[in-house]
Amino acid sequence: MRAVVQRVTEARVRVGDRITGEIGPGLLVLLGVGREDGPEDVAYVAAKIREIRIFEGENGRHMDRSVVDAGGSVLVVPQFTLYGDIRKGRRPAFDAAAPPEEARALYESIVRELRAAQVPVATGEFQALMRVELVNDGPVTILIDSKRGF
What we know:
There is one protein chain. This protein is α/β, with parallel strands linked by helices. It is built from 4 helices and 6 strands, in the order βββααβαββα. It has a single domain, classed as D-tyrosyl-trna(Tyr) Deacylase, Chain: A. The chain has helices spanning 39-51, 67-70, 100-116, 146-149; strands spanning 2-15, 18-23, 26-32, 73-78, 121-123, 131-145. Strands 1, 2, 3, 4, 5 and 6 form a 6-stranded mixed β-sheet that branches. α1 packs across α3 (100-116). The termini are close together.
């Protein structure tokens, strides 16, 4: 499982003319699910999203608090293109991405785990053409890859 995590002052997802998810200060998470991913990847990535210390602390110390500590929210957006492979040719291949049914279940598991930890969560829309708007704070962008973390 791969997640691109961006610290934001605000972010939203639009599908057509409607906003499907919107947050103020917190984390925008673009989430890709791979063919080999399972419950252990969900647990790993959800914990990292919850616990990563990339917010300023009370004493002004940089990278001192998590999204939970900072009272922020998380916007989780499905992003199968994180598994795009361009090593051969110019068009990405998505063979390593999980099939939609499996990916949706694991994506929803991440959202459930974060909500169960009392993190306010907004979402994109699975298998929709989305426009993601954000104001990156810092900028701070971190890559989480569950296959590199175990």
